[in-house]
């Protein structure tokens, strides 16, 4: 491990309560040399799929060796397992509820361990706050060089969320869905840049969302017209639907999971 290891936090705790801060206190009590980075604490409550999307979008930008702790955990206190997921680049610590689906299905996945070694937990484990009592101390011990295999037994059946993969339909249309809506109201879809071949030309595209046909593919937000929905390639490498200086989700009455269909030009 690095002399100054990085531990990230992704939770649905929000900022009004003490939970995220207490987790940091536990980590620093075990390893004061850690650098703790907040990815987000604004995942919708109990929404493990949204947590998975946040991790997938953010984790590739962290250095190799980072430890990513995710606590979106509606099953806390139940029989759900606690995990360490080991990949070639990093480690993930959190509940076995599908929040690590992207890491489990991506190239570089090495091993998954169900946490059973209570020596690496806090002395008293509550039924309601495993972020503090299990996941934070486990991450801190990992950052000090403890091997994941010392913390539990290897498993091969972690929970996986269904993968929303765009599919080709008849008549040459490509159907994906809205994977995420950011705080600006931009609709981030499951359609990636490499899937767009043949679906746009010279700034024109045909995307259908919630009964609306969107025909502009803009190079930037600034290039768009006020109040007119348009498509744009977002920073995540996914096709997005936006409205300049406004909220596309509200304008189109769109929700996560809604279909988006691209038609051949």
Main beta sheet: 9 strands, antiparallel
Number of discrete helical segments: 5
Structural class: alpha+beta
The CATH architecture designation of the largest domain is 3-Layer(aba) Sandwich
What gap, in angstroms, lies between the N and C termini?
51 Å
Order of H and E elements: EHEHEEEHEHEEEEEEEEEHE
Q: In one word, what is the shape?
A: elongated
Percentage of β-strand residues: 25-35%
Number of domains: 2
CATH homologous superfamily caption of the largest domain: S-adenosyl-l-methionine hydroxide adenosyltransferase, N-terminal
Helix content: 10-25%
Question: What is the name of the CATH class of the largest domain?
Answer: Alpha Beta
Global Rg = 21 Å
Mean pLDDT: 94
CATH overall fold name of the largest domain: Rossmann fold
How many beta-strand segments? 16
What are the low-pLDDT stretches, counting only 5+ consecutive residues below 50? none
Describe this structure in words.
The chain is α+β, with helices and mostly antiparallel strands and 265 residues long. The protein folds into two domains: 6-155, 3-Layer(aba) Sandwich (Rossmann fold); 167-262, Bacterial fluorinating enzyme like (Elongation Factor Tu (Ef-tu), domain 3, Beta Barrel). The protein contains five helices and 16 strands. It has helices spanning 19-30, 48-58, 101-105, 130-143, 248-252; strands at 6-11, 35-40, 67-71, 82-87, 91-95, 109-115, 152-155, 167-168, 174-181, 187-192, 200-201, 204-209, 212-216, 229-233, 238-243, 259-262. Strands 8, 9, 10, 11, 12, 13, 14, 15 and 16 form a nine-stranded antiparallel β-sheet that branches. Strand 9 and strand 10 (187-192) form a beta hairpin. The longest helix is centred in the middle third of the chain and has 14 residues, at 130-143. The termini are far apart. The mean pLDDT is 94.
